[in-house]
Amino acid sequence: MTAQLAPPVPTTSDVPAPTRLWTPSRVLVTRSAAERPHGQRILARLEAAGVPDVELLPGDRLPNLRGDGDRAAFMAAKDTLAVVVPPPSKRRLQPIPPSADWRVDLAEGCPAHCQYCYLAGSLSGPPITRVFADLDEVLTGLDGYVGRGAVTSGTLGRGGEGTTFEASCYTDPLAIEHLTGGLAAAVTHFGTHDWPGPVQLRATTKFDDVAGLLDLPHGRRTRLRFSVNASSVDRRFEGATAKVPGRIAALAAVAAAGYPVGLTIAPIMPVEGWREEYGALLDAVAAALPDGADLTVECITHRFTPGSKETLLDWYPRTKLDMDEARRTPKRGKYGSVKHVYPRETMAELRDWFEAALAERLPQARLLYWT
């Protein structure tokens, strides 16, 4: 299966300058990670970026990063990057509906400060960002998963996407790309590898440093999606991210470079004036996208679990995020888990509006799912 050629990339003047680049205050690199080729590439990038505190550990165990549980300990963990080699079990991929057939983790954790962060209920331990140095082995092991998925591969609704691999389930890969180069390596592999069937790499981000991705041989096998929201949600709850206008400019740049692109509108919240704010968001996207862009949309409403609420209130004790269970409906999973979602009437009102607004403002877009 031969890769498709990417179209000419945008000129330098068309590429938006990144509005935020993260520099960790501390980096820990395990011995096995430093021995891996990808780990060595990360070390070179850290040196080039001038990261001041890079510690090469004598073994593969990270030091105790839990601290004493106070705010300072949380901030220190949040500002720490660890380069590690995960256990071999991590290479056994898991399905990740409704997004993709398989989850491929380039990293776990994120340097952003989103006060609704879903990682609060998904990852345990201190909120450091762990980058996995076994990327080369992971990428070479993906062939065996092609054609075996149940979310997109072989389905009527999304079969045209091929076998899909989600790279942003537990991280924001673009947030750390300037330090790791992992997303570029994955994009290049997907674009140039001789696969046994149709494939697609998927990644979503709240950042905008896309210049290093534009001239890659992506072969249109990577869909870059940008997580966007109403202006008041972005302003109040999405700390240490690129702001939404920067994300939209980045979306337009990668679309002009021939990538399939997407909007992840999440988490949707019925804030005051939500119709006007989300309408302005969709209008801004429509104005920025080049003609003929291959655009998908994923709509995800805000929800939380009892565990994630407890963690988020510990992380962000002054948050104004609405997590009042009395204003929600419990949704139970098959293993007894509970999520608090918006009531049926609110969900129906939101969904009806978004489906109509997308059809009117972005008629070329394909809505993949609503949840």
UniProtKB/TrEMBL annotation:
Q: Which GO terms describe its cellular component?
A: endospore-forming forespore
What's the short name of a Pfam family annotated to this entry? SPL
The UniProt keywords, alphabetically, are:
Lyase
Q: Does the keyword Plastid apply?
A: no
Gene3D superfamilies attached here? 3.40.50.12110, 3.80.30.30
Q: Does the keyword Metal-binding apply?
A: no
GO MF: 4 iron, 4 sulfur cluster binding; DNA photolyase activity; S-adenosyl-L-methionine binding
> InterPro entries, per this entry?
SPL
PANTHER family xref list: SPORE PHOTOPRODUCT LYASE, SPORE PHOTOPRODUCT LYASE-RELATED
**Would you tell me the protein name for this molecule?**
Spore photoproduct lyase
This chain's source organism reads: Geodermatophilus obscurus
